[in-house]
């Protein structure tokens, strides 16, 4: 379920086919699927736009109940028994003509875009036979123009996912679901970011995704600087990227090898140089009192 204006994905569900009897068995019928998807927005007074796979008079009636309080606009499959024969394609109906039907809170319209063709829509949001005058000679009903303006939410969301797709070929369905979650999370984060920032700023999704990706890996990369198994060249590059001082990352270890001794000696100790914070043994270090150290620092300054 996607918002038709911002393409924010509100809810989705993984189709897992028919499940065996038990706690995980759910109905995959179109009506039950829609009712599960609209759970986050029920009783909000919003409208749901559906294609002919999901649209039915039964679903439209259920969404109008106090439990849901939602309206529905969608195309009807012409094989539905609910459609009167007068609303079906007929070679005698002139192009750009419309036939309306009303029952309780439901409106059905049959529009002829070209000879021998008919498009049938159901709406619980519209209650009249209004024609959209902006369509000119096409004389399209307002139900159809509204449907056309709101039907593309899911398709546009899929298109946005494919533009910057993080998915990789895999036979593991949990990984495929994870890739999809990352894709839609990037879209949703961008929508929220635009809503919470200055309207006068031009937002570029490519730049936003790069900044988002960098923010997500920053902590992990900084942790890698502390790992011994990471190559020195990689650590050096990570320190340059994140502006991390080498002395800071070396000072976190409790014990280490003397920086001046050959590696074959493998001396592990806890003493460090006061200035560079490198591990150092007694053989390669000198002990100063505080007074002498202060005088030496003053001489170096002069």
Secondary structure: elements and pairs:
Elements: H1 30-37, E1 47-50, H2 57-64, E2 71-75, E3 98-103, E4 106-111, E5 119-123, H3 142-150, H4 153-163, H5 173-195, H6 205-225, H7 232-242, H8 246-250, E6 256-257, E7 268-269, H9 290-301
Parallel strand pairs: 1-2
Antiparallel strand pairs: 2-5, 3-4, 4-5, 6-7
Helix pairs in contact: 4-5, 6-7
InterPro entries: PGBD
Pfam families: DDE_Tnp_1_7 (PF13843)
Organism: Spodoptera exigua
Q: Tags for this entry?
A:
single chain; 302 residues; alpha+beta; 5-stranded mixed sheet; two-stranded antiparallel sheet; PGBD; PiggyBac transposable element-derived protein domain-containing protein
């Amino acid at each position: 379920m996607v918002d038709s204006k911002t393409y924010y994905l509100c809810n989705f569900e993984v189709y897992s086919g028919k499940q065996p009897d038990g706690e995980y068995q759910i109905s995959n019928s179109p009506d039950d699927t829609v009712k599960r998807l609209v759970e986050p927005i029920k009783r909000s007074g919003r409208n749901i736009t559906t294609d002919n796979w999901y649209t039915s008079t039964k679903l439209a009636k259920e969404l109008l109940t106090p439990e849901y309080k939602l309206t529905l606009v969608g195309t009807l499959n012409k094989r539905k028994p609910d459609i009167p024969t007068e609303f079906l394609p007929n070679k005698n109906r002139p192009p750009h003509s419309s036939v309306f039907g009303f029952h309780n809170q439901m409106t059905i319209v049959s529009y002829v875009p070209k000879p021998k063709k008919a498009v049938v829509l159901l709406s619980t949001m519209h209650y009249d036979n209004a024609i959209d005058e902006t369509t000119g000679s096409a004389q399209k009903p307002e139900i159809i123009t509204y449907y056309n303006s709101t039907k593309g939410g899911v398709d546009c969301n899929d298109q946005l996912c494919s533009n910057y797709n993080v998915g990789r070929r895999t036979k593991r369905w949990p990984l495929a679901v994870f890739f999809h979650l990352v894709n839609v999370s990037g879209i949703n984060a961008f929508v929220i970011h635009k809503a919470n920032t200055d309207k006068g700023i031009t937002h570029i999704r490519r730049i936003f995704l790069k900044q988002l990706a960098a923010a997500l890996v920053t902590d992990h990369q900084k942790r890698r600087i502390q790992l011994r198994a990471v190559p020195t060249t990689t650590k050096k590059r990570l320190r340059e990227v994140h502006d991390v001082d080498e002395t800071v990352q070396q000072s976190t270890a409790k014990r280490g090898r003397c920086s001046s001794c050959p590696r074959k000696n493998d001396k592990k100790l806890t003493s460090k140089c006061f200035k560079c914070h490198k591990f150092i043994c007694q053989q390669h270090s000198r002990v100063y009192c505080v007074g002498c150290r202060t005088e030496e620092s003053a001489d170096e300054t002069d």
